[in-house]
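Memo to structure team: turn this sequence into structure tokens by end of day. - J.P.
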Amino acid sequence: MAKLNPYLSFRSEAKAALDFYRSVLGGELDVSTFGGTPMEGMPTPDEDKDLVMHGQLDTPGGLTIMASDTPSFMEYVAPSAGVTVALTGGPEDHDYIKDAYEKLSDGATPGQPFELAPWGDYYGQLTDKFGISWMFDVAAQ
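Reply from structure team:
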């Protein structure tokens, strides 16, 4: 089965962001750095060796978030306001998603509180301390 997963781009904060997301969502984190994964014909400058070439967080509930840093020899493209990570689920996911919203709120720019919305779902928004926009939606009973 195909999966659609967010792949987040950072200047140099991918490891800190993935560690934070792991503390919020749980799961197993696998990180490869530019220095730890040398590529033939592509020397890695010393200042880039600790940057994340690829990081992947697989959560207990089956969510996957991937991320990488941008080395000095590549152009950094910041996340756009139009890209959002959506964490959604049914009534059985309410506590998990509410807890994620509360933990991701640490250092975040508030958007919309996680509360019952006029259309009947629990809904909220924020931009986390790494500049990533999040949307939360849980179907009510």
